[in-house]
Amino acid sequence: MKKAGYSVLLLVLILAFIVLNYNSFDSWVVKNLETLEPVEVERVIDGDTVVINGESVRMLGLNTPERGEKYYKEAKEYTSSLVMNRTVLIERRGKDRYNRELGYLFYGDENLNAKIVEKGYANYYFPSGHDNYYGLFEDSWKECILRNENLCEKSVDECSECIVLHKFGPDEDLILFNSCDFDCDLDGWTIKDEGRKTYVFNDFIFKSKYQVTITAKDFNETYVWTNTGDTMFLRDKQGKLVLWENY
Question: What is the pTM of this model?
Answer without folding.
Answer: 0.83
